[in-house]
Amino acid sequence: MLRVSGLCLSLLACAALPTGPARAQDREGGATLSGGFDLIEMRADKGDDIFLWDATFSYGDATDQLMLVTTGGGPLATQIDQSEIRVFYGHTVGNVTWLAGIRHDITPAPRDTHAIIGAQGSVGTRLSWETYIFLSDRGRLSGEGQIIYAMPITGKLYLEPRVAAGWAARDQIDQGARAGIGEAEGSIRLRYRLTPKINTYVGVAHERLLGGTRRLAKDQGEAVQATSAVIGFGFSL
């Protein structure tokens, strides 16, 4: 599995789309608990099947929220090779939620802990975006960003294209990364709402390494890109 699979999981966390799991800040009134699994999916690429999950839960009101995010995945029939937990405090101003928190990598080793600052927001009711900067306990600076668009087809059916990228401020050879933008993913999912809280989907995802990270992976004999068929479902509380 490409390293960018872990990036994809991270980026999909805390997605601001109204079509995803409900966020506490979308509710009126007092503090409420909301969230769910935006993605529970399997990716198939030339027999290399990969299972991924992404869940976000939040508690708060329209202005202040606490968020818990869990993401992970790995090849089927073997051990999970990417998993992490993030805890955020979010403060919403207009259409933007400013975030600060901590990320802890459970797998793979080394199990780094990162301080996070970030923001997520929306443009209208269909386009959402998010961006994060990480500083690890080893002094490594990196970041990621994503744009998601919800394109309705019928009342229950919609297309969901996503574009994501990640970068590192300096070379991280032990992590297989060079300085600069090193990985990107484009995906599109066709989602169908079975109920207001449950949806299922199929799609395609293309991952690739870029720049010096791509050259480093080639030198080490690793894959530098992959295109996968995707099938999965999501649900909210």
Write structural notes for this entry:
It is a single chain. By secondary structure, the chain is mainly β. It has a single domain, classed as Porin (Beta Barrel), CATH 2.40.160.40. It has two helices and 13 strands. Strands 1-2-3-4-5-6-7-8-10-11-12-13 form a twelve-stranded antiparallel barrel. A hairpin with a 2-residue loop joins strand 4 (82-93) and strand 5 (96-107). The model is unreliable at 3-27 (pLDDT under 50).
Q: How many domain modules?
A: 1
Low-confidence stretches: 3-27
Number of strands: 13
Number of helical elements: 2
Secondary structure topology:
Elements: H1 4-12, E1 32-44, E2 50-60, E3 64-75, E4 82-93, E5 96-107, E6 113-123, E7 127-136, E8 141-149, E9 151-152, E10 157-168, E11 180-195, E12 198-209, H2 211-219, E13 225-236
Antiparallel strand pairs: 1-2, 1-13, 2-3, 3-4, 4-5, 5-6, 6-7, 7-8, 8-10, 9-10, 10-11, 11-12, 12-13
